[in-house]
Amino acid sequence: MTRTVVVITAGLSVPSSTRLLADQVADAVSAQVGARGEAVRLEHVELRELAGDLASYMTSGGVPTARLSEVRDLVSSADGMIAVTPVFTASYSGLFKMFFDALDTDALNGMPVLIAATAGTARHSLVLDHAMRPLFAYLRAVVVPTGVFAATEDFGGTTDLSARITRAAGELAGLVVGTDHVAGFGPDASGRRTTRTSGTDLGPVTDFADLLRGHAG
C-alpha cells in the first residue's frame, strides 16, 4: 500500500531554511515508512505559492479558488502531514495560520502530524509547544511527541538535529502505517468512522432572496 504524506512549508524565500528542514524531515519519514514495508508518496505544498489564493479566500467570504480547492482536497485525503513554518514574532507565520484557517474544520480529524519550525535563534524553540501544538490540537489532529526545531546553527552539522529528525520521523511513520488505529480516526463507540472533509463540496445553496423572504426591514 502507498501512503500519502503532505508536506506543508511556509518558507518565503528561495531557497529557504524552512524548505531545507522540510525536505530533511520528509526524506526521513519516507525512509521510516519504507522500513515498515510500505511505500510513501510525498506531496509538497509551498504556501508562498498560495499567498494570493489565501488572500482571496479571506476577503471573499470563504470562497476558495480552484487551486486552493485542490490543495484542500489533497490535505483532507492524506494519511499524514509534515507542517513546517518559520518563526515570526515568536509564533508561526501569518501565511501558515492563513492556510490552516482556510481548511475545513474536519479536514485534519485524527491525522498524524509532525510539526517543525525554523528560526535564527534557539530561543524561539518553544513555538512548537506553545503555538503549533495548540493549533493542531484544536483541529483534532494527532501530533507526534517529538517536534523538530532548527535554529541557524543547527544546519552546521554540530548539533543533534539529525537524531531529532529521525526520532520524529519514526513516530510519524508508525502512525501513518497504522492510520486506522489513530485515536479519533477509526470507528467510534457506535462503530461509525470519524471522517475528514475538505469543505470543497458545499452542497445546495439557498438563494439569498429566499433567506430574506418573510423578514421585514
Description:
Helices cover 38% and strands 19% of the residues. With 217 residues, it is α/β, with parallel strands linked by helices. Strands 1, 2, 3, 4, 5, 6 and 7 form a 7-stranded mixed sheet that branches. Helix 1 (17-35) crosses helix 6. The longest helix has 19 residues, at 17-35. The protein is globular and about 70 Å long. The model is unreliable at 179-193 (pLDDT under 50).
**Percent helix range:** 25-40%
CATH homologous superfamily heading: Flavodoxin domain
How would a crystallographer describe the biggest sheet?
7 strands, mixed
> In percent, how much strand structure appears in the residues?
15-25%
Low-confidence stretches: 179-193
State the CATH class. Alpha Beta
Specify Rg, calculated over alpha carbons.
19 Å
The CATH topology corresponds to Rossmann fold
Multimer state: single chain
User: How many H/I helical runs?
Assistant: 7
Integer average pLDDT: 88
Q: Per the principal axes of the C-alpha atoms, what is the gross shape?
A: globular
Element-level helix/strand string: EHEHHEEHEHEEHH
Number of domains: 1
Structural class: alpha/beta
